[in-house]
Design goal:
- Two copies of one chain form a homodimer.
- Chain A is α/β, with parallel strands linked by helices.
- Chain A has one domain (3-221): P-loop containing nucleotide triphosphate hydrolases (Rossmann fold, 3-Layer(aba) Sandwich).
- Helix content of chain A is 43%, strand content 19%.
- Chain A contains eight helices and seven strands; from the N terminus they run αβαβαβαββααβαβα.
- The first copy, chain A, has helices spanning 3-30, 46-57, 73-79, 98-108, 149-152, 154-159, 178-188, 205-221, and strands at residues 34-40, 62-68, 84-89, 115-119, 136-142, 160-166, 193-196.
- In chain A, β2 (62-68), α3 and β3 (84-89) form a beta-alpha-beta unit.
- In chain A, α1 (3-30) packs parallel to α4.
- The interface between A and B is large, with 43 and 43 residues.
Amino acid sequence: MTQARLIEVETAILSKNDSYAEGNRRVLNALEVFTVNLVSSPGSGKTTLLCETIRRLGDVPLAVIEGDQQTANDAERIRATGARAVQINTGKGCHLDAHMVGHALDRLRLRQGSFLFIENVGNLVCPAAFDLGEDCKVAILSVTEGEDKPLKYPDMFTASRLAILNKTDLAPHCDVDLDLYAANLKRVNPDIEIIALSARTGEGMDRWIDWLQARRDAKRAV
Amino acid sequence: MTQARLIEVETAILSKNDSYAEGNRRVLNALEVFTVNLVSSPGSGKTTLLCETIRRLGDVPLAVIEGDQQTANDAERIRATGARAVQINTGKGCHLDAHMVGHALDRLRLRQGSFLFIENVGNLVCPAAFDLGEDCKVAILSVTEGEDKPLKYPDMFTASRLAILNKTDLAPHCDVDLDLYAANLKRVNPDIEIIALSARTGEGMDRWIDWLQARRDAKRAV
């Protein structure tokens, strides 16, 4: 298979994905649902952050789509908070695509003005290329991962509107420089917003909750 | 594009990769080079582990192939130890393939009986499917990532001969259960070997160095 043929195949896959994503976006906009696509490496703490976010958002309508290669563990953790969650298992697949998400939307019966959180497969590469119909991607980095990650995986941070530096409670134990994280994030995406927090201790969680509520209110006001 | 067509394309890519991998393996076997394909999430500490490994192996011939989407930072870190290193940038790509590695081999001029370390792109999904011609894959998990990772990304741990639980110095700070990590690893791959270590403090490094030397000696004795 030649390189040209491979690129042609890739373009065809992405173009088909984009048309499904547009369909999802029409549904989500009609419902005034503010939708966040959470992307990160495996083990950045997405599910713990999401459980704590749901707890703090309190009595607002929301739902979750969970993506993993295998297991329904994360959807079960989310359901234990009382929130509705659908698990998608991608099997060999390395990312969620808009077609899978469309089927999950059909099952979720979203209420108008909800939040929808899509927890993507843990992968700092492939999910960057796939629009799911979301309002924005939010990239989560554990501070244990190292300050060079934005430079080494620039596509993901270019595609994201917000970067969360999670597990700040571990920062004192691993010689990490939060200013260098921020500088490297801005180097690949000058417009990216940054919130440092610890889902475990609660430090910084207020800023994230405020960010979410402001974004959802702005969407409803349009 | 239909599902059948996609699978056909994927099979063609993997089959072409396998033939390049066989070519690499013939070269590496002829040179009695013990080759390790290091796979993990971004931020598991592969490069730090590799620098410390090189330091401890001392005066033995070795070389390194570094894979990243962008930057030559890791190859520079390796070269600072005195070892030879070639950087491969995959651009949009999410894994190294055997064709790229073949070109790197041509540039490395390996000495007989060397170690070759291939540091793959940080990604717990896609590199599992691509044979590079290595003797074995070694999967590295940072203990901060969570005990469920082997269950959620089973392909990678099924494909690996050894799992390294890295950053054990952070274990006391993040409520991690090393026995549960081991149990989950064995659940997806009963044959997998496990070494817990901290490249930062040196704890457990001796076992890893002994493992490498024994494997290389076994290969040379064949």
